[in-house]
């Protein structure tokens, strides 16, 4: 069953625990703040639909490069830099 009701902020830790367990990951290894920052920067600098794609690619790149916390940090920094560059070189039209 799916729902369109957003996850309340206080439930984020609970969801992380469930999803991490389901994916056989340690929730302590997930840099939630870093990933949310990437999603925010991409959503604001590129487009909202680019945020989940970007966080997936950050995780994928980090995994392919070793999967350490430093690999996640490096991939996140790259995504943020590219999103900020994108927003300065691809101005949006007024809404």
From TrEMBL:
InterPro entries: DUF6457 (IPR045598). Pfam families: DUF6457. It comes from the Bacteria. Residues 8-89 form the DUF6457 domain. This is DUF6457 domain-containing protein.
